[in-house]
Amino acid sequence: MEINWPVFIVSVVTLVGVSAWTIFGTESATKVLGNVTGWIGQWFGWFYILLATVVVVFVLYVAFSRLGKLRLGPENSRPEFSTFSWVSMLFAAGIGTDLMFFAVAEPVTQYMQPPQTQPESIPAAEEATVWTIFHYGLTGWAMYALMGMALGYMAYRHKRPLAARSALYPIFGDRVNGWLGSVVDAAALLGSVFGLATTLGIGVVQINVGLDILFGVEQGIPAQVSLVALAIVVASISATTGVAKGIRILSQLNVGLAVALAAWVLFWGRTDYLLNALVMNVGDLVAGFPSMTADTMAFNDVSGWMNAWTLFFWAWWVAWASFVGMFLARISRGRTLRQFVLGTLTFPLMYIIMWISIFGNAALDRVINGGEDGNGDTGFANATIDSPELGFFTLIQDYPAATLVVGVATIVALLFYVTSADSGALVMANLTSKLPTPRVDAKAWNRIVWAVISGVLTIGMLLVGGVTALQSATLIMGLPFAIVMLFVMAGLMKALRQDVHRADSLEHSERNVVAGAGAHRYYLEKGPNWRDRLTHAFGQVSSKQAIEYLDRVAEPALRAVAEEMSKNGSGVNVEVVRGDLDVVDDLRQETKVYDRLKITAFEGANQFVYRIIAVNAPTPVYGGRMHAARDRSVRLEVHTTAGGTTYDVMGYSGNAIIHDYLNHFDRHQEYLRNQEETKADQ
């Protein structure tokens, strides 16, 4: 596979330069980051808030409108993973070391230093955890859903590369293959790198605290640099060996450990209070979400709070959007947009609400009712505000089996940290490669390069100012891609409406009505007699029989119609290819393909493809018996550009094959005519 050199070189040079600047010009970098962050917060804070609101409305509209019936792939595609496996992977995508960090640090800070209410009051306590859930909840996952939809839809439905530039193809056309696409991909990549560096930076300071408690590893840059080096090594090993699958399994098992931690705190803490608080948090979030999501706090002088919290989180989500969106697209092929959006917005949010509510409210309980006299533990609160990484581990040390619990928490944080580094290097390498299909990953050396660059950048940001510097850098680097996301929404909407228009054209095509159901009717009237059809329905077809049928009937028929169309098609290029190696994305990855026959008409965006593919498929069993290995047969399935057709044409006569092809070709022609009429009316 080929490297996308413009994106690779621009991104590498930029990141190496920034890393060197932060490491060797620490004072200058600190000053500039602070000034630029303040400027962006002042002049573009409203834009981040507006973008977040628009994205939420957009993805919900797609889900609940008729657009939600469209699939991430051809209409005949089906999910590659079971619902349980898919949900498990969504959970794994939704949590990480940073959630452990902020689940305690933010509620405590919002209680002690709220934006608009009296500090250390009951209203401040009621809002504290809700603000945290809001910052980690629906809005951010709507951004992930947007990018996942756009990337997956253009890749699986329109055969575009799984890259950010593809989301803009409906607007800019082939221009995305040039410098414009490179700029978009570079913006996505730079945002992803800084988002990843922020997560890794938060992870290393959090893990460092756990190692200090367990083994006395001193908190500071030396230990944190060692942890960054560990992430680079793990990502490099994963890229060059076969342990990547094992790392993914560990990530999913880690979700179970994280749930066990939350259950431990719920069981040994004030269970009744925590459950009551959880229900109240959900109610307050639902009631307050519309006003919170569009609240710029214009009448309060809280620019510092906005920069540190809401604007940082929205920029962080934007920076991660391409990263997580690409992952969501790869695991969601075949699902409807409605399933995709509702699943993405629901399942991770359930986990986030559970985790933040339990740990956040447990922390608030300690601040309000803790201490030796039971009048509050302000020492814990102040320590958490000054050093947020201390909050989580200080809290869980109050529970039974403290050493064991701290050990489990450290393992959870460490595993989330290394898996984030590994997957981050993979995604960034993919973003700088020209991959032939969405199922192919970048070369190992490219992954190692990005593991090293992200690690060095993380170290540089830790030297400049730790987590605060990482937050500032994310707010800055998220802005370019935040602008791109507006075009992503416009491009996706255009593509969705075109495909709905295509479906309407096919459904209402008068030409198809005149044809009288095309080949299927022809098959009934002039095909084999009914006994032959019944034998075919209950019988089994071998690969040899299927290939012989393609040789003897299907290929000659399609070559005949191609020759005739080339004569009468006013320059239409029609080509028949046997055994083509094109990947058919509406087939399951594990499907065994014996042979392929393809006829192609037109070129570019108007191209029409009709394939007959010999695939191994199960046959129905009767009488209640179990499916056996022998219950398999070869089907000659039809796949077209529009999808939605996977019936078996084995046994059709040559004329029936021709009529079936022309039936679909007429529908495509009708769609193109209607499309031109729509353009003329605009």
Show the helix and strand layout.
Blueprint: E1 2-3, H1 5-24, H2 26-64, H3 83-94, H4 97-112, H5 122-136, H6 138-157, H7 169-172, H8 179-215, H9 221-240, H10 244-268, H11 271-293, H12 303-308, H13 310-331, H14 337-369, H15 378-386, H16 388-396, H17 402-431, E2 433-434, H18 444-507, H19 510-515, H20 518-526, H21 530-538, H22 543-568, E3 574-578, E4 593-601, E5 608-618, E6 632-640, H23 654-681
Antiparallel strand pairs: 1-2, 3-4, 4-5, 5-6
Distance between the termini: 41 Å
Query: Main sheet: which strands, in order across?
Result: 3-4-5-6
Largest sheet: 4 strands, antiparallel
- Described by the principal axes of the CA atoms, the overall outline is elongated
Name the helicity range: over 70%
Structural class: mainly alpha
N-to-C SSE string, H for helix and E for strand: EHHHHHHHHHHHHHHHHHEHHHHHEEEEH
- Highest CATH level, the class of the largest domain: Mainly Alpha
The fraction of residues assigned to DSSP E strands is 5-15%
pLDDT < 50 stretches = 510-519
What is the residue-averaged pLDDT?
A: 85
CATH fold-level name of the largest domain: Amino acid/polyamine transporter I
* Total separate domains: 2
The number of helical runs is: 23
Number of strands: 6
